[in-house]
Design goal:
This protein has 134 residues and is of the alpha+beta class. The protein has helices at residues 2-9, 15-34; strands at 48-52, 55-57, 60-63, 67-73, 82-85, 88-89, 104-109, 113-118, 128-133.
Length: 134
């Protein structure tokens, strides 16, 4: 590589310059090794529901009473979370505002039951989801 060729071409009387180049290369490798890996996929948390362009992931989530479920918009389009089914809003939990990409909406489920939800912006074009609280 070009930097190895450059190191070999340095004169012996320029040890500071050679040392500086070696330190810069080492620092670059250290920075590269410590940074987040952009190729590593994100991992969904245990009580998270991701809003994707294809729907909700997972579509059904089972949790215990007194659990907070957090919806996270992973799509570049705005979405919301509304209790019920398209055409039948139930208001069993607070609806979310319109969520931009990476925005979150947490809801505490303090009673057992089955809670359906959907995106009211996209209605039936986006699919539905279900939280089962035991």
């Amino acid at each position: 590589m070009w930097f190895f060729r450059e190191i070999r071409n340095f004169q012996v009387r320029q040890p500071r310059r050679k040392l500086l180049l070696v330190l810069l290369i080492a620092l670059a490798f250290a920075q590269w090794r410590c940074a987040e890996n952009p190729l590593q996929p994100e991992v969904r948390g245990p009580n998270e529901v991701w809003i994707l362009s294809t729907g909700f992931d997972p579509a059904t989530l089972t949790v215990r009473v007194r659990t907070t479920v957090t919806w996270i918009n992973k799509d570049n389009a705005r979405h919301d979370v509304t209790s019920g089914l398209p055409g039948n809003v139930e208001n069993l939990f607070d609806p979310s505002p319109n969520l931009s990409q990476d925005e979150r909406h947490p809801v505490l489920f303090d009673q057992s039951g089955t809670f359906n939800y959907f995106c009211s912006i996209h209605r039936s074009n986006h699919g539905t989801g279900r939280i089962i609280v035991q």
